[in-house]
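Per reviewer request, we include the raw input and output of the structure prediction for the construct analysed in the revised manuscript.
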Amino acid sequence: MRWRLDISYDGTGFSGWAVQPGRRTVQGELESWLPKILRLDAPVALTCAGRTDAGVHARGQVAHLDLADPAVDGGWLVRRLTRVLPDDLVVRRMTVAPDGFDARFSAIWRRYVYRIADEATEPDPLLRHLIAPVRGTLDPDAMRTAATSLLGLRDFAAFCRQRPGATTVRVLLELGVARTHNAVEITVRADAFCHSMVRSLVGALVAVGSGRRDLEWLTRIAEATVRDPTVTVMPARGLTLEEVGYPPNDQLAARAEQARTRRELAESGAGA
């Protein structure tokens, strides 16, 4: 039986989501405790919607887990996990997944928010782990204008740390900028992200918003087919995975198959 887990964590003390030898990770914590609670002799494997990097937070991470025992009570398991997990990691819900659900491949978008404190921001020490500071005062209007130019289907190679066999073509669905009393919030939503894409997009918008770069610069680098060294990768601490979107239940399996096929084609060099 496949289960869906809705997970939140403060990424400050984690070396990212994925298991790494000798390092504390979100996946490692969960995969360590689940077999103990369920009294399983074999390890369990979690699949998440999006692997977050070291220091990145999540309010709306989604993962799935396959268990052989149909008698498992999701509510009971969440309560047991709450007792043993550290206070920077919470499994909020565990529910039976619909047919065809895959936390990673069924997802149709991921939404992140990057929070920045500039010199016009009212400091809040309670949010110090969630907000990245920058010097000077940002112009949200200039940043919004710049953001509009990046929307849609394009090759985001200039903003990605490329990996062998991986495509950098993505559909950027939303790139919004808003100022609150204690942060400049940049919302980024796309079908998927390549490595460091969100923090690089934010770095480019900050360069424009601070007046150090102009729209012509952004337009020029956005057309590049390789990573541009003039784009700053912002610190991980300001980034939070807020939400993952999925299609209606009757479309989950088809979406997952489509995403797997696209990935296989890209890795073989035949796609994108």
